[in-house]
């Protein structure tokens, strides 16, 4: 999957909170932002959640 780069400007306090949260979950700040966006896209119904179980089922269906 190709990734697109862009600049994100956030205030220092928000960055420090994100950095702490990312460290708590063993992620980079960038990885934490990607994770949060991904989770919120799924929760809002804007993106389908592709779990390994769903992918296995899709693979079986496509091979028929």
Quick structural gist:
It comes from Cloacibacterium rupense. The protein is about 60% helix and about 0% strand.
Describe this structure in words.
- The protein is mainly α.
- The protein is 61% helix and 0% strand.
- It has one domain.
- α1 packs across α2.
- The chain is globular.
- Residues 51-64 have a biased composition (Polar residues).
Key attributes of the depicted protein:
single chain, 64 residues, mainly alpha, 3 helices, Ribbon_hlx_hlx, Arc family DNA binding domain-containing protein, Arc_rbn_hlx_hlx
- The number of helical elements comes to 3
Order of helices and strands: HHH
Strand content range: under 5%
The percent range for helix content is 55-70%
**Number of DSSP strand runs:** 0
N- and C-termini, Cα separation: 26 Å
Alpha-beta classification: mainly alpha
Shape: globular
Mean pLDDT: 86
Instruction: Report the C-alpha radius of gyration, rounded.
Output: 16 Å
Major sheet size, sense and barrel closure: none
| Uncertain regions spanning at least 5 consecutive residues | none
Number of domains: 1
């Amino acid at each position: 999957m190709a990734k697109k780069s862009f600049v994100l400007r956030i205030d220092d306090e928000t960055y420090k909170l994100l950095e702490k949260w990312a460290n708590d979950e063993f992620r980079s700040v960038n990885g934490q932002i990607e994770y949060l966006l991904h989770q919120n896209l799924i929760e809002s119904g804007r993106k389908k959640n592709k779990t390994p179980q769903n992918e296995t089922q899709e693979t079986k269906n496509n091979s028929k």
